[in-house]
UniProtKB/TrEMBL annotation:
Name of one Pfam family that matches: SCO4226-like
Organism this protein belongs to: Acuticoccus sediminis
Protein name (database record): DUF4242 domain-containing protein
Stored InterPro entries: SCO4226, SCO4226-like
Domain of life: Bacteria
């Protein structure tokens, strides 16, 4: 399945406890739309995340973000590159 990097910008700092509390709702929306969250990075100022997702297309990510009421400011298709590929 294609992978996408999603940049999300938030007005307020994200707290991990709030993120944890909202995760079941977001996961339910992701399942409904057919996207899978792989992992995320949280910026030092806690106002931006960079999330790696598997999804059939970018529109599915936009739909999940709308339904979950979270931003999806930049969606970039990505390919995985690892050091083992160059060994």
């Amino acid at each position: 399945m294609p992978k996408f990097l999603i940049e999300r910008n938030f007005a307020e700092q994200l707290e991990l406890e709030d993120w944890r509390a909202n995760n079941p709702r977001i996961e339910a929306v992701n399942d409904e739309v057919g996207v899978q969250w792989i992992y995320s990075f949280l910026s030092a100022d806690k106002r931006k995340t960079y999330c790696l997702y598997e999804a059939p297309n970018a529109e599915a990510i936009r739909e999940a973000a709308r339904k979950a009421n979270v931003p999806a400011d930049v969606i970039t298709p990505v390919d995985e590159v690892t050091p083992a590929m160059f060994a």
